[in-house]
Amino acid sequence: MRALVLTEPRRPLVLLERPDPTPGPGQVLLDVRACAVCRTDLHIVDGELPDPKLPLVPGHQIVGEVRAEVPRPGHAPRFARGARVGVPWLGFTCGTCAYCRAGRENLCDAARFTGYQIDGGFASRVVADARYCFPLPEGVPDLQAAPLLCAGLIGYRTLRMAGDAERIGIYGFGAAAHLVVQVARYQGRRVFGFVRAWDEKGKAFAREMGAEWAGASNEPPPVELDAALIFAPAGELVPAALRAVRKGGTVVCGGIHMSDIPSFPYSILWGERVLRSVANLTRQDGEEFLALAPRVPLRTEVNVYPLEEGAAALEDLRAGRFSGAAVLVVANDEIPADRA
Description:
It is globular, with a radius of gyration of 20 Å. It has 9 helices and 17 strands. The longest helix has 12 residues, at 175-186. The protein is an alpha/beta fold. The chain has helices spanning 39-45, 98-101, 142-145, 151-160, 175-186, 200-209, 237-244, 283-292, 310-319; strands at 2-5, 14-17, 27-37, 62-70, 84-87, 90-92, 112-113, 125-129, 134-135, 167-171, 190-195, 213-216, 225-230, 245-253, 274-277, 302-306, 325-329. It has 2 domains: 2-149 and 281-334, Quinone Oxidoreductase, Chain A, domain 1 (Alpha-Beta Complex), CATH 3.90.180; 153-277, NAD(P)-binding Rossmann-like Domain (Rossmann fold, 3-Layer(aba) Sandwich), CATH 3.40.50. The strands form 4 sheets. Strands 3, 4, 5, 8, 9, 16 and 17 form a 7-stranded mixed sheet that branches. The protein has a 6-stranded parallel sheet with strand order 12-11-10-13-14-15, sandwiched between helices. Its EC number is 1.1.1.1.
């Protein structure tokens, strides 16, 4: 198989030919059809998330076709050969700790993550634990389905943590935000988008995707917010978001990594405002969100790259050169003519 491999943090990914992975008990072997690129992949490549498996194949928003499954002893196969499934960030949990027993498997101390401690989908084939794979809804093409598996899922969990907030601010209008704004509007909420002050293209994209107002992240919105969702990995946005929410409002940090939060006066937290984070996802999140996605229906803006250009996709993400999500494809017949 072909794979983009991280040999050491802060070094470029290397395209290699490797032996096909062999599934063990409870695992599926997948032919990768598409894998979306996530900012978390950048955090891993840049060494901002510690102790990745090395060498590592990144990628955790995988759309694959089942080539083989090895059932766990005493269990029937979960998927038929040829089934289309999604592989998310959460790749394994212990199932027995207090967090897992309480339905909070996303906090399991023994959890392992796809494209971090487990080889991921920047490759032509991958193995995954069948229990953590999702059947994908029919009618959602591979390229549009891939970003749902992290950007969509984390966005959905972040929105859920805002409770029944009606007026929601979204800070950082990338892959997750452009999906969650559609869910929020479907639920009857009002959305206000925040981007960098100079980013006129980003403001226009936020409005196009459903925000009723879009402005600079350092300016106040036209109304007090009930909640703010932060997807940009910039700690300085936390005080800005706290100032934008009303008393009793909630600020939810949706990323896995963020720069240090600067000190801020207690007065902007006082008034029973809540500041919280979102960690990973649960399988229940995935099942709920993937059932909801075709009902909205979600429109996924994708920028397509062949597998061989995965490093370029990461650099384009870092530089903010596109709106929406980047998706790597393996089969050349899935690449639009202008990218082939």
